[in-house]
Amino acid sequence: MSEETAHERPYIHLLAGQDPAEVLCTTPAALRAVVERLGADAVNTRPGPGKWSVRELLCHIADCEVAWAWRLRQTYGADKPLLQPFDQDPWARAYDGVQYTTETALSTFTALRTWNLALIETFSEADKARLANHPEIGDLSLWHIVEIAAGHDLHHRKALDKL
Ligand code: NI
After folding, report:
1. Per residue in 8-49, pLDDT tens?
2. What is the mean pLDDT of residues 118-133?
3. What is the residue range of 143's domain?
4. How far is the CA of 54 from the centre of ligand 1 (A)?
5. Distance (Å, whole) CA 88 – CA 59
6. Residue 108 maps to a domain
7. CB within 8 A of 120, min separation 6: which ones?
């Protein structure tokens, strides 16, 4: 896949033929395994100035799941809805909040992911082809949204596996 196509549909190239629903299904356990392997000290340590700790990254992944949850349902339920881009950095201002713990991020992500997979598993071929419009990316199908979410998982899982 060309760089240009990868840019138009970010992260999809990371799937390299894997079923996105299967990737989505395996990520909660993979993230929990990383947290258990690293331990609390490493999880809470920032690798450098301005870089997220693993805990903060898990908060980001949980926040993205909130966004995917809405985008999936928006596209499933309306004809070619307009998707709203979001910027991760303003949301990250909250990650110093005392309730933004590693465990809350993981459990929130896992619950939302379970609910999103419950929806995704019902998709017919016609559902998968439903269209949405992203102002920066262009037209996307419902299945592209699933693929982008799975590719985003892999993007972060690859980095975490190197820690
Ligand atoms: Ni991300």
Report:
1. 678 999 999 999 999 999 999 999 999 999 999 999 999 999
2. 98
3. 30-38+51-161
4. 12
5. 10
6. yes
7. 21, 24, 72, 146
